[in-house]
Amino acid sequence: MAAPAREIASPPPFTMKPLSPVGGVEIRGIDLAAPFGDEVFDAIMDAFLEHHILVFRDQKLSGEAQLAFTRRFGEIEEHVGRLPNGEKYPLLHVIHNLDEDGNPVRISGGNYFWHTDKSYHAVPSLLTMLHAVETPSEGGDTQFANMHMAWDSLDRETQEEVSDLCAIHSWEANRRNTNQSPATDVQKRERPPVRHPVVRSHPVTGRKALYLGIHTSHIDGRPKEEGHAFLNRLLRRATKADFIYTHKWQKGDLVLWDNRCLLHRAVANFDMESERRVLHRTVVKGTVPY
């Protein structure tokens, strides 16, 4: 049973402006690097549950300040990805388009495909947080697709068809589906394939959402090719323009979103070879989908 929503006795101590019918709210009037109490955090959480995407403008967060804010939401996740020297990414790691000398270069990767973070974990992500340290003069957007809306848009027959299905997710599938270097044996051992429902219920609100993305391999119990093709068709339906909010980054944005009901992807719509795009990323561990 979904937990009841908290009641806030007074208006939140910051201003909010909705960004899109799909989701997203712009928040101003709060410095996340400064201490604040539980009442303020409860207001942030209520906004998060209602709008799915929070955009805090004009933030200047050190790495430690971002980690401290992230920990208020729960346990920070480790990452299966590796740095060039083979070490794991740190808890706060940098997303960028820079070479070893700090020069901008053209890159590709799984983040340019629709996904929900860490769905290849047995316990996937609750939320992801990005702090925009450097942004290109134009472009470098991030898109979000609302999977509550995608579920609601399905006809009853399709809802019944997918309600009892489970998909296999894995880091190995991610690498294969995005044409990246294959997963190493170590990564396969660290993150073996996991089974998650194609339709999950939000653990707080109880609302249903499709649970899809580039980390999926196939439908459990169906031939792999058939199941893979089915998931791709469903993903195309779930990421129609009507369900998408496109975030245009500003320097200082601190954006966090709910991986339990959204897909997201980066957009390669900027001049990667001449402009820098640098974001600091943290991820919070969630709960087992059901």
- Gyration radius (Cα, Å) is 19 Å
The sequence of SSEs as H and E is: EEHEHEEEHHEHHEEEEHEEEE
Number of self-contained structural domains: 1
Q: How big a fraction of the residues is strand?
A: 15-25%
The poorly predicted ranges are none
Going by CATH, the homologous superfamily would be Clavaminate synthase-like
3D architecture notes:
The structure is a single chain. This protein has a single domain, classed as Clavaminate synthase-like (Double-stranded beta-helix), CATH 3.60.130. It starts with 14 loop residues before the first strand and ends in a 5-residue tail after the last strand. Strands 1-2-3-13-5-15-4 form a seven-stranded mixed sheet, with helices on one face. It has helices at residues 38-51, 63-71, 147-153, 156-163, 171-177, 185-190, 224-238; strands at 15-18, 25-28, 53-56, 93-96, 125-134, 142-146, 166-169, 194-197, 199-201, 208-210, 216-219, 244-247, 254-258, 262-266, 278-285. It is α+β, with helices and mostly antiparallel strands and 290 residues long.
